[in-house]
Amino acid sequence: MSEEIWQQAKILFWSQILLESYEKLLKKPLIERKGNVSEQAKALFFAPFVVVSHGIEPDPILNYGNQMALNLWEMSWEDLTKTPSRLTAEPVNRQEREQMLAIARKQGFIDNYRGIRISKTHKRFLIEEAIVWNLTSDRGEPCGQAATFSHWLFLG
Fold this sequence. Notes:
The protein is α+β, with helices and mostly antiparallel strands. The protein has helices at 9-26, 37-45, 67-73, 77-80, 94-107; strands at residues 50-54, 62-65, 109-118, 124-136, 142-149, 151-154. It has a single domain, classed as PAS domain (Beta-Lactamase).
């Protein structure tokens, strides 16, 4: 890729949606908002915690994962952005995941979520203390959901 992921126009735009929606709902910044849009997008992409999001398709597709998310799920950017977000959980855990997303949709966000996820190479991990929040455009229209967490534990 000739330009870095965070420098792409659509990622600069999406990074601002992630940051603005988080700050509006949780009343605190996800990252320190210093510098210009590009510097903020780079800081988010290389943050020392996971940030991942999906859109509002009927079967939502992942549309953002920072470097920590790419590493954890063992995916390239290209793989991640073609993956239905439900596939980040094993079939047995998908109903519980969907219930959590529904609660977040209704409330705006949830915090202190925990659940089991699975990487591309089938490594299972427990995420803890995750925050899941709704994403809205600058006009207030729903455009997805995102999650962030910095605590996970690989399982057996």
